[in-house]
Design brief:
Membrane topology: Multi-pass membrane protein
Pfam families: HAMP (PF00672), HATPase_c (PF02518), His_kinase (PF06580)
GO molecular function: phosphorelay sensor kinase activity
Largest sheet: 5 strands, antiparallel
Radius of gyration: 42 Å
Main location: membrane
CATH architecture of the largest domain: 2-Layer Sandwich
Distance between the termini: 58 Å
Strand content: 15-25%
Protein name: Sensor histidine kinase
Length: 602
């Protein structure tokens, strides 16, 4: 206790400059440390997540290019198959050697020409059933005839290549290729005579591994620590910018268990300095997997630089704080005390105060802002009070519009008359419509309901009104299916329909029509109530829609309530418009957001 009192007395004797320094030191140092650690962690996660997204995007682009190569190669095989069949159809039946040589030259020329159209395919070889070999590259008869003993034609046949190309694994071989040093991906296809169904031979189209490696090289050249591999279903690397890795097993030590995981996957593999970010995406067409390995050591270098920069900035801020702390008492403390005094009065509930500070520095700005905030609070409180009053008025008007006792009594009288006249079915339908109408009207809970439910409620109301006034109205409803789930305020259409009946149709002198129609308006929905009644003059329209100007008491509390509730629920861009022409009718259109939603309380 004595030590505590001693420290308190010692601190009390210190000048305010030293007090500020002693208080600010921990307030600056600890937040800076926390900021450095937190920003470092966030930066680290951001770098890794950004790298993941970049690799995913690059991998999708690579797979798209690979798929394009595969499809182009299959297309080239189909064209070659057509040309081979046509050449056999046009082949001379003469057994002379010169005719055979001519056919041989035509076949190889056609294979070469077809490959020009598809540069992704490197070479093509056709082996007919008699053992003759035709190639798109300069003939290498002694070497290419080895295909006859390789079992490849038989393998293609066993794979079920009856008019369908079958892909064989990537391999390096010294026959049936233009360059024995480069592994190839081969598409095999059996060629048939379309008329007789007899087999003409087997077509092989080769794609060099370097075609795929060039794509991987371009995508991986942005970073020396980022490598792409294509791995086949047996776990071999079938394409890589590093030629020494070709056709070798994918190193399980780099990413153990990675190939067994279900693609797509992006995760940290390994530990310590050897950890990497591995991304795996499958290419099911060839049972391949595209693997990307990014060394975390490179990513950590950026993170370490961020740490260093953060702590350097923190040290600079600490130094500046120490230098400027002595000036705080003279420049800030006294004016702040005056502002604080005014703030304390506001906290106690007195908002009729202002700060007397008038300096032109930041403290003066704080005082000016404080005074402005107090004034805005006073104005806001006044506006809230007025708004609550208006809202209460709208609620009372809504309750009054909902209950409508005279509508209930008149409808019950109608039901009584219908029963008295023996019109039981009409009385039953009217009773059901009245029950459904008041079930929605008096329900609690959601104030926003789907448009389809609001339409059902309006239809019940119109059915009742049609029974009560059969010579006054008929109605049509046209609501697109895609707008049925758009949310609208409950009982927003009924006041508009009621207004159309009582002020548009009843005074017309003949039966009128009410049409309820909805349409898309950009991203919003527009629901219109249209009648062909007596219409209104521009002056009458202005009087009915004076709520849009916020002046005076509205002529129609029902329309006013609909307008204000739309504004309340959806905001300023939405509301209600009225267009009318004397003798032609009236259109009242409400605009609401076009997004679908769930019922919810407001």
């Amino acid at each position: 206790m004595g030590v505590r009192n001693g420290i308190s007395e010692w601190f009390g004797r210190l000048p305010i400059r030293r007090k500020i320094v002693l208080i600010f030191l921990p307030l600056i140092i600890f937040p800076l440390l926390a900021l450095g650690l937190l920003s470092g962690e966030m930066f680290s996660r951001s770098v890794i997540e950004k790298t993941k997204n970049n690799v995913r995007d690059e991998s999708r682009l690579i797979l798209s290019q690979i798929d394009s190569i595969v499809k182009n190669t299959e297309s080239s095989a189909n064209i070659m198959t057509t040309d081979i069949i046509r050449l056999y159809d046009e082949r001379s039946a003469s057994p002379e050697a010169i005719e055979e040589e001519k056919f041989h030259n035509l076949m190889e020329s056609r294979l070469s020409i077809d490959l020009v159209l598809f540069p992704d395919a490197d070479s093509a070889v056709f082996v007919d059933v008699t053992g003759r070999v035709y190639s798109s590259y300069p003939p290498q008869e002694s070497r290419d005839r080895r295909v006859l003993y390789s079992g490849l034609p038989e393998k293609v046949k066993l794979m079920g290549s009856y008019g369908v190309g079958r892909w064989m694994p990537v391999e390096r071989r010294d026959f049936m290729v233009s360059d024995p040093a480069v592994p190839v991906l081969t598409l095999g296809k059996i060629v048939f005579n379309l008329d007789t169904g007899s087999q003409l031979g087997t077509l092989f189209v080769n794609v060099k591994e370097t075609t795929f490696a060039s794509i991987l090289q371009v995508m991986g050249e942005s970073s020396s620590s980022k490598q792409y591999y294509i791995v086949d279903g047996s776990g071999r690397i079938v394409s890589s910018p590093n030629e020494r890795l070709l056709l070798t097993p994918f190193a399980a030590s780099v990413a153990p268990g990675l190939l067994e995981r279900e693609a797509p996957v992006s995760d940290i593999v390994g530990s310590g300095e050897g950890s990497s970010l591995a991304t795996l995406i499958a290419y099911d067409r060839l049972n391949w997997k595209l693997v990307n390995i990014v060394s975390l050591q490179t990513l950590n270098g950026d993170i370490r630089r961020n740490f260093a920069l953060t702590f350097a900035f923190g040290a600079l801020c600490l130094l500046l704080s120490l230098l400027l702390a002595g000036k705080l008492s003279q420049i800030i403390v006294n004016p702040l005390l005056q502002v604080t005094k005014a703030m304390r009065k506001v906290k106690e509930g007195d908002i009729n105060v202002s700060s007397p500070v008038t300096t032109q520095d930041e403290t003066g700005l704080i005082a000016t802002v404080f005074n402005s905030m107090v004034q805005q609070i006073k104005e806001l409180l006044k506006a809230i009070t007025e708004e609550q009053g208006r809202k209460r008025e709208y609620e009372l008007a809504l309750i009054h519009a909902q209950i409508r006792p005279h509508f209930l009594y008149n409808t019950l009288d109608t039901i009584y008359v219908l029963n008295d006249l023996g019109l039981n079915e009409e009385a039953r339908d009217t009773t059901k419509a009245l029950a459904d109408f008041y079930r929605v009207v008096l329900s609690k809970g959601s104030e926003l309901i789907p448009l389809a439910d609001e339409i059902d409620n309006v239809r019940d109301y119109l059915n009742i009104m049609q029974v009560r006034n059969p010579d006054v109205l008929r109605y049509e409803i046209d609501i697109p299916i895609e707008l049925e789930n758009v949310m609208v305020p409950k009982l927003s259409l009924q006041p508009l329909v009621e207004n159309a009946i009582y002020h548009g149709l009843k005074t017309k002198g003949s039966q009128g029509l009410i049409v309820i129609r909805a349409r898309r308006d950009g991203g919003d929905a527009a629901i219109a109530v249209i009648d062909n009644g007596v219409g209104m003059s521009p002056e009458q329209v202005l009087r009915v829609t004076q709520f849009t100007f916020g002046n005076g008491k509205p002529a129609s509390i029902g329309i006013y309530s609909v307008y204000e509730r739309i504004k309340l629920y959806f905001g300023e861009p939405y509301g209600l418009t009225v267009r009318s022409k004397p003798g032609a009718g009236t259109i009242m259109e409400m605009k609401v957001p076009g997004k679908e939603g769930k019922d919810g309380n407001v």
